[in-house]
Amino acid sequence: MNSLAFQILHLLSDGLSHSVVSISNRFKCSCYEVFKAFDEIDSLKIRLISTWNHNYCWKKPVQWLDSERILNEAKLSNDSYEITIIDVTKSTNNYLLDQYKEKYIDNQRNPKNTSIVAAELQTSGRGRFDRRWYSGLGGSLTFSIGRWCKQEDISAFAGLSLVIGLAILRTLNHYSIFDVCLKWPNDIVSDARYQKLAGVLVDFKSHAHRLSYAVIGIGINFNLNNEVKAHIEYPVTDLYSLSGRMIDRSVFCGTLLAKLHHMLIDFEKYGFTYFKEEWISSHAFEEKVINLILPDCSVIEGIARGIGDDGSLRLVTEQGTKSFHVGDVSLRIKNDGTQYIND
């Protein structure tokens, strides 16, 4: 999508009527280019009001993300956190991974702060196993955090995605949303039918004689439209459905970043064991019969009972208790013959 489409959308966010001629004059482009941009806007399922003489207005614009409001809510310093908000990107995780290589590896620069990139629209968001994460413009909060960590051994990050999920859960509780829980290893789901509300994806990079770099990707459904839901193959929900109100994405993001800031410090200091019992008490499938699908598509049935100090899932089977690690398996709950898929 070209930048003109988003420039027009930002302009139309004032709720006023704008003519094609005035738009072309404002952005110094042809009327033909404006009409092409409107075609792209239409492809996003954004409904604008138009008149016979080509005036356009947007009666229900999205609430754009605001970096200053995010930092103010988080009470974090610009010296420690650098927030970039972009209109559209394929993947915020990939965006930061590309920056990591360009800024710090190729140019041999040292990191000075934590980088955060949030996208108004993510077109090819990734979940585990490179599954697609769908989100519409303004309907989700999709962002990534690039954080330099003292440990060079990636094994020191065991359980990190579980801690991120717990931070999201704490933030939801802060907004009086309590009918949610965690699904091992990286999802937040509704209590009722295990509908997916949010997900976490952590990528790691390391380089000789340099600190380890973790990119933490977070996607949270705020108010998904029907077109987006139609593309999703598993049960989903969003904050509007759970709370009955529109929650400001910038304020929510700031609240979450504040909690993450302190929790990541504790994680680096104490490891996952510091959060282990709280995580177990919030696990949707604790003491429930589940099926684990292994990479070779074989299935192991057992009772989910706790997690290890390294964040591995403990499963009580007929052959005894076994541990499974993130990346090894997919999890399904066995519930009266119905399987709710939430990978």
Describe the protein in words.
The strands form four sheets. Strands 4-5-8-12-11-10-9 form a seven-stranded mixed beta sheet, with helices on both faces. The protein has a five-stranded antiparallel beta sheet with strand order 16-15-14-13-17, with no helix packed on it. Strands 1-3-2 form a three-stranded antiparallel beta sheet. Helix 1 (3-12) crosses helix 3 (31-43), helix 2 (20-27) crosses helix 3 and helix 4 (67-74) crosses helix 9. The chain starts with a helix and ends in a 10-residue tail after the last strand. Helices cover 31% and strands 28% of the residues. The chain has three domains: 3-57, Orthogonal Bundle (Arc Repressor Mutant, subunit A); 67-281, BirA Bifunctional Protein, domain 2 (2-Layer Sandwich); 289-333, SH3 type barrels, CATH 2.30.30. The chain has 343 residues and is α+β, with helices and mostly antiparallel strands.
